[in-house]
User: Fold these one by one.
Assistant:
Number 1:
Amino acid sequence: MAELEHFQMLIDGEYVDASDGGTFESVNPATEAAWATIPAATADDVDRAVKAAHRAFTEGPWASTTPTQRGKYLRKLGDILAENSEKLGLIESVDTGKMAKETKWQAAYIAEFFHFFGGLADKITGHTLPIDKPDMDVFTNREPLGVVAAVVPWNSQLFLVAVKLGPALAAGNTIVLKASEHASAAMLEFGKLIEEAGFPPGVVNIVSGLGEPCGRMLTTHPQVARISFTGGPETARHIIRNSAENFAEVSLELGGKSPVMVFEDADLESAANGIIAGIFGATGQSCVAGSRLYVQESVADELIGLIAATAKTIVIGDPLADETQMGPLATTGQMAHIEKEVAYAIEQGAKVVHGGKRPEYLSTGLYYEPTILECPSQDTKIVDTELFGPVLSVLRFKDEEEVLRYANDTKYGLAAGIFTRDGARQHRVAKAVRAGIVWVNTYRVVSPIAPFGGFGESGMGRESGADAIYDYTRPKTVWINTSSEPMSNPFVMR
Ligand code: NAD
């Protein structure tokens, strides 16, 4: 058996194992074999990481580093990340089963997030206020919050690091990142770039471990001022309860069941490509997966035919191979969840247009076929259940009013897609659909410049976009009495 690779945590500027030597194994979903060992942080390790971050925030050189210098550190980190994108992308691919060509490209593009937030570091401003009192100058400064605890899932390690670390550090905070127990390797490897970029010890700390105790310890720690969480809604409920311990500010980026609406005047080939990118890209393991397709009746057969024809040709297999178009699911838990929900949808009357099972020709690996299910009604359970896999539920609609009713009949509110050539309808439907991100005649595009996030069970707060940086600051209001007269008697009202 090949020797397992080992990754270490970054605490207070040092690369370390868990203090009790504890580890867990990370499994390569393409082979179903363990390929790496990961430190399982103890409560003491988490405490040490938070205290190091707190010290760096209050006492270390970081506290007096100018915003311009913070921006330079972040831009340098972006450059180093781009130089290391091949290696980091490869590690993420082996660890998660995501296609290497995608993870390598993503790792290189993520550099843009550090450049963007680095550029914003010295553009965070307060206001002077036209106050309603004589002889007073009043203004606000935006100050960093302190220690940020960032807790992330397994599906996009480097991307999630960028959207949390970028604004947090640009604003002057320090951070403790907690990797997912299902895939930590790329994030721990990324830790090696922190020192090279010049950050002082303790400014960035990266720990790995289970949700319990590591995630709980981190998010209840009294020295944590802000929690930035990405993951599932059930864990998010724990996070909110955890924040009752330390009154940390909380933002939540959660799941979705995003609708894609295709109207009869759409370019159907383009729509089919958008739908396929939305649901089969990253094997559907994406929070913005366009997993609910609504197609207007008159073009339904043609569009479903187009998607099914492409789904049949999708090359499933080794995520490291260039010809692969869809890799495996990341965990056995994911496989069990998807198989159970698909079986139940069929029991409820859903018709399998394509897929619905593991590919028979691949005996090893967590592979699942690209799956298209035509559902009998909006009430079919799968229509509002996040699967986080390559499964598209399809329903037909008569008109705009009906499709908006269906699209908005959800507990989620993350993303939505609209395919139509009618300009007025593009604006009308984009306005009416309940989603934080709306893509018109396109799907699954992101940028550091564009806010990202949802509402309802899709979370609260926004990541990316210039405003994200303000979520990592608080205003301080300063009142200056400009009168040369002494203060008057406080017991005389006027
Ligand atoms: P998860 O909620 O199970 O785990 C996320 C993280 O929370 C992990 O690091 C885990 O260790 C930690 N955790 C678990 N219990 C905890 C506790 N009690 N206290 C503190 N931390 C705890 O999520 P997952 O299954 O790994 O990821 C899939 C979910 O993430 C999906 O719902 C998906 O839609 C969502 N997601 C959302 C976005 C977005 O930006 N909106 C992006 C990617 C993934």
Number 2:
Amino acid sequence: MSRSEAFPVVVTGGSRGIGAATVALLAARGHPVVFSYASNDAAAQALCDRVAEEGGQAVACKGDAADEGAVAALFAACVDRFGPPGGVFANAGITGPACGLDDLSAEDLRRVLDVNVAGSFLTAQAALRSMPDGGAIVLMSSRAGRLGGAGEWLHYAASKGAIDTLCVGLAQEAGPKGFRVNAVAPGLIETEIHAAAGRGDRLKTAGSSVPMGRTGTAEEVARTVAWLMSDDASYISGTIVDISGGR
Ligand code: NAP
């Protein structure tokens, strides 16, 4: 892998939560970052402004991670503005409604699989196509992928199980082309994703089920993503890193 130290980075779902923490951290470390978001223009602009105030560079591209054309446009924006990315974080994801399988609509099931699974595949594919010298791909899994999400997130958990498979298989497929592919599997992280699914109380009540006795922060995930992207992780590929306080 031959990259400049300040290689450009693409992040999907980068305007809020874990994605935003990662954009801010990577930009503060000197990486120009191009990130996508779904709809919240104000949050995306606020992040770009914050990064600029801190002396970094971040560019927002509105677009659905599940849309092939939007993903291509996101990577094209990075190539045009900063050159080919050296790192990609396929982070965008949604939970869908919190409910048991018997109450899940086919439409909600398809949307979760489309954003989380197809979106990650399309992002990884765009990375392969736009990074001639290879680089580091970090995928967003979840501890739910192996815990199962019974009774509330089975659809979401299964989508993250697919990400684990993508990580292991793509690391083998793309390794000879100069790519390292890894995933992070966070546990209970303090972002708005829980409240958006009607489970805002979850972070307060579920913290006691974590061996470390607390929920995690978006910054704690961001630091792991930045490490996996960096040359400090130069011989790590095909690995899924749990960030869950032991849960
Ligand atoms: P969040 O706070 O809800 O932020 C989601 C971000 O993704 C926002 O920037 C949002 O944009 C963007 N986004 C949503 N759908 C998108 C789409 N279709 N296309 C492009 N961007 C999209 O979520 P989070 O908690 O940071 O979660 C980020 C990732 O971490 C997800 O894949 C999630 O499954 C995973 N994860 C989270 C936790 C946790 O406890 N928080 C645990 C394990 C894994 P807008 O602002 O425009 O909506």
